[in-house]
Structure formats: structure tokens, C-alpha cells
Amino acid sequence: MPVGFVGHGAPTLAIDPGKGGDLARWSKNLAQPRAILAISAHWEDAPASAGTTRVQDLMYDFYGFPDELYQIAYPSPGAPELVRRIGALMGEEIRQEDRALDHGVWVPLLHMAPRADVPVLQLSLPSREGPEALFELGRKLAPLRDEGVFILGSGNVVHNLRRLSWDDPQGVSPPAWAAEFDQWVQEVIDRGAYDALVDYRHKSPGLRVAHPTEEHFQPLLVAAGAASVKRDPVSYPVEGFEYGSISRRCVQFG
């Protein structure tokens, strides 16, 4: 299986046929996975912990959005055997919580796996362990690719809610700082310069404007770590911006 990173953007992606269609077209070119392992910006917990392994209600971890978003269901099967396999790869027992899928997972999967028939497991983002540890987590998870598991990081390459432009929902005119950071990410990934990606706090342009907090960037490090073992070709199935400066860039490794 390839490895993916999805720019999940605003929760309204769930009911946006245009932007959702971009994700649907991407997923049509992917092989059917045995399971999906998702790492979202919206669950930070260290050490890495597993979420629910049963079908249950979703987490609607947002407020002030259209009522129809709070009625959406995504009854994907759980993946308890994947928890045990991850523990074996990491050499430690994985703590498990009865935590529903957050919107960083179910919103993009509504379009990428709309039948909800693929088992899904969410793994927390151990952000406080630092960039190197996140990349190494991905490397430890890499063998899952050969076992039919689609590893999917979910966040945004550029994410600053304080700099949104509600007058530009399609991201037609992104500010220079957003375009520069987004382009830097593409360039380092294209070069396979994962050392620079991991050292983004020192190497990237305008980090504190692009990411006042880093949780939306860091799932990309886990995905890149999982991809780095094989050095697969890279593609960008979705690009561009929304609401001025939120990057929609999605990355497929392999």
C-alpha cells in the first residue's frame, strides 16, 4: 500500500461535493486496503495510543457548523488485530482508549472510503515526543504497508486559523507566506530530504505564521517516516488552498 497525507481542512469538507470529489478521485486510484491506520491532528497523546476498535458514534469535535454535520454517521468496522500488530512492531503494549473517530479521520474518509466497509483504527499523535520521534514512529509502522494497511496522516501543510480569509473560500489568492511554506514542503519531499522535513523548526520559512501550533503539520512526519523506508515516488493528488491560506495539499508516497 502507499502512504498518504490528507489536508482535511474545515469540517464542511464532509458536505462539500467539489472538495470531497477531489478526495474521491484520489482514492479511486488506490488499491483496496485491508485496514486504514489514521493519525489525526486532533488527537494528541503520548505515548501513541489506539482509539476505538468497535463501531460507535463519531466525535463531532467542532461547533458552530451546519446541523447536518452532526447527523453524519460513518460506521466503519474496528480493527482490534491491528492494535496487537502495532504493539509488536513498536515492541510495547499499546494503550487503548474507547475514543471515537474525530473529524480529522471521518471527514476525509467519507469521501475516500464512502462505503465505510474498511476497518479503521486511529492512533494518537504523540506530538510532545518531538519531530524525530514522530518520524521514527512512521518508520516502525512501515511494515504494515506490506500487510495491506493504508497509513494516513491527516492535518494541513499550512494551518493558521487566525489568518483565514472568509472572502476567499476557494483559496484563489493565497498570501505569500502560505504559498512559500507550502512550496517548501513540496520541494523537500520531492528531493527526499526527510532530514530537512524533520528539522522544519529550523529549516522551513515562516513556521510560526504557517503554524502557530504544529499539530496539523506533524501527521505529515509520521507519514513521511513510513514512506522513507522504501523511498517511493511521490505525487500530490490534491493541491491548492481554501479560505485564503489553509493548504489543501495531499501527498501520496508510493
From TrEMBL:
Q: Which CDD domains match?
A: 45_DOPA_Dioxygenase
Keyword Ribonucleoprotein among UniProt keywords: no
One Pfam family, please name it. Answer: LigB
List, separated by semicolons, the cofactors it needs: Zn(2+)
Entries under InterPro entries matching the protein: Extradiol_dOase_DODA, Xdiol_dOase_suB
Coiled-coil regions, chain positions: none
Query: What molecular function terms (GO) are annotated for this protein?
Result: ferrous iron binding; oxidoreductase activity, acting on single donors with incorporation of molecular oxygen, incorporation of two atoms of oxygen; zinc ion binding
Keywords (alphabetical) are: Dioxygenase, Metal-binding, Oxidoreductase, Zinc
SUPFAM superfamilies documented for this protein: LigB-like
Report domain Extradiol ring-cleavage dioxygenase class III enzyme subunit B positions: 24-230
Concerning its family, UniProt says: Belongs to the DODA-type extradiol aromatic ring-opening dioxygenase family.
Q: What is this protein called?
A: Dioxygenase
What organism is the protein native to? Lujinxingia vulgaris
